[in-house]
Amino acid sequence: MRRFVSFALIIHFVFAFSPVPAQPRNDVSPEKNLAVFDEVWETVQERYYDAKLRGIDWAAQRDDFREKSAAAQNSTELYRVLREMLGNLKDSHTRVFAPGEDANWITPRVVSINLAVREVENQLIITKVEKNTAAEKTGVRPGDLLKSVDGVAATDFFDKRLAETSGASTPAINRLQTAAKLFEGEVGSSVRICWQRERAKERCANLLREWRTVKSDVRIKKENGILIIGFDVFTLETVSRVLGALRQHRDNLRGIILDLRANRGGVTEASVDLASVFLPEKTTIGNFYDRAGRIAQEAETRQSPIFIVNSEKVTKTPLVILTGTATASAAEIFVAALKNASRARVIGAQTCGCVLAVRRQHTLPDGGKLEISELDFRLANGDRLEGVGIAPDETLNLTRGDVRAGRDAALEKALESLQRNRFNAAD
User: Fold this and answer.
1) Residue 42 is inside which H or E element, if any?
2) Residue 158: which H helix or E strand, with range?
3) Contact 108/28 with Cβ under 8 angstroms?
4) Torsion sign over Cα 152, 153, 154, 158
5) What are 117's strand-pairing partners?
6) Total structural domains in the chain?
């Protein structure tokens, strides 16, 4: 059996953002469209990790969508049809990118009006407003209730967008991604939003859609002997920075908090690197399985990175991991490994449940790209994470009061647990 270290090209990630839209290509024809459609349909049929295609009648999908693809007037319409078909697999990792679309998952570029919305306590609540932007100047603040979008009641607008969204591995991540992309549209166009603060009058403003690059920084802070590290993607570079922080602060550590609430996954080798710091060498984390049900690859820990000098000070330090609905893929593999080994306490929300393996990117006849899940993943005990996720040891859901007050209840609970040493790290 080949060990994981020899297969570092397998990547896990959930693209929580839409790819940068390309200008629609009008040089299409029924023949060209069908060449693209057939390539997508046949590649999925031949290479998808589940030979039964999750119980879907794939031949019927061909009948349903092939004619629609032939009739597409431009690349935007064609890829909308392809995404609708692939969405029936309910698989966050299987997707297509039209020619010219930028699918940079490390620092994605998104369409934004510089504020974020989430479902909180069954309401659409504004959770973040970017500093020094037109959105902030309107007076909208975190904790405000979104009332309407372009004259449509916010809940109705959300439900319509949700009905048009497909392809997520679980309903929870589907709803989260719909909220994240609620204001998408043509860059330079405006959207009118109305909001309301408690016991205040409703206010409205027009905001322009613009490009914003989402940075994948490593956030490091030390508080009363507790090291808090947050990062949103697993790459060899980000994990190297995390390991560097552990080395720098290894003395006099009372505890470590890893904030993975917005970690959308990344390179599985990187998550294994970090797990290797906290778990014994040669601990089997899980296995990747091909469509025949055979183990194609094993993920196991290896000797701790050599630049963690006197790493025992780190490996036995009490550890808390913060998770959320957006915690996905390689991040879920990491969390499950440490939770199942009783090496970390997990606080927050149920994770995404989006854990499959993409082996390679397939180039389509028109220059577009196809990514499909070619390998399944199961933990060492045989459990699957795809479509299930990981339940935290202690669930703390976001509240509107917390958003309004700028309070991070999950982080506070993690700090309290470590300061009082309420749990014991495994020897």
Assistant:
1) helix 30-47
2) helix 154-164
3) no
4) negative
5) 126
6) 2
Instruction: Answer whether residue 45 is part of any domain.
Output: no
Whether residues 259 and 196 share a domain: the answer is: no
In angstroms, what CA-CA distances link 223 with 220, 261, 411?
Answer: 10, 19, 12
Indicate the residue type of 317.
T
What is the token pair recorded at 214? 């989402």
Q: Who's near 66: CB < 8 A, 6+ residues apart?
A: 34, 37, 38, 41
Query: Tokens in use for 111?
Result: 């369409």
At residue 415, the 3 state secondary structure works out as: helix
Q: What is the CATH number of the domain that holds 162?
A: 2.30.42.10
* Tens digit of each residue's pLDDT (9 = 90 or more) over 295-348: 999 999 987 665 554 556 677 899 999 999 999 999 999 999 999 999 999 999
The verdict on 254 and 124 lying in the same domain is: no
Cα of first residue to Cα of last residue in the chain, in angstroms, is: 29
Last residue of a domain, one of 213, 244, 270: 213
The CATH number given to whatever domain includes residue 394 is: 3.90.226.10
pLDDT tens for each residue of 28-42: 899 999 999 999 999
Which domain-ending residue is among 213, 238, 265?
213
* 265 close to 353: Cβ distance less than 8 angstroms: no
Q: 115: Cβ–Cβ under 8 A, 6 or more apart, which residues?
A: 126, 128, 129, 130, 135, 140, 207
Give domain status of residue 223, yes or no. yes
Task: Please report, for residues 234, 345, 396, 419, the alpha-carbon distance to residue 311 in angstroms, rounded to integers and kept in the order given.
Answer: 21, 20, 31, 22
Confidence at residue 101, expressed as pLDDT on a 0 to 100 scale: 79
Backbone angles phi, psi at 12, to 5 degrees: -125, 125
Domain that holds residue 205: 109-213
Quick one: 224 and 208 in the same domain?
A: no
Q: What is the pTM of this model?
A: 0.91
Q: Which of 4-13, 71-80, 143-152 has the lowest mean pLDDT?
A: 4-13
Residue of 327, 231, 324, 242 lying closest to 276 (CA atoms): 242
One domain for residues 269 and 322: yes
Residue 383 in domain: no
DSSP state of 224: T
Asked whether residue 286 is domain-assigned, the answer is: yes
pLDDT at 21: 57
Please tell me whether residues 343 and 408 are part of one structural domain. yes
Give the model confidence (pLDDT) of 341-376 as tens digits: 999 999 999 999 999 999 889 999 999 999 999 999
Secondary structure (3-state) at 128: strand
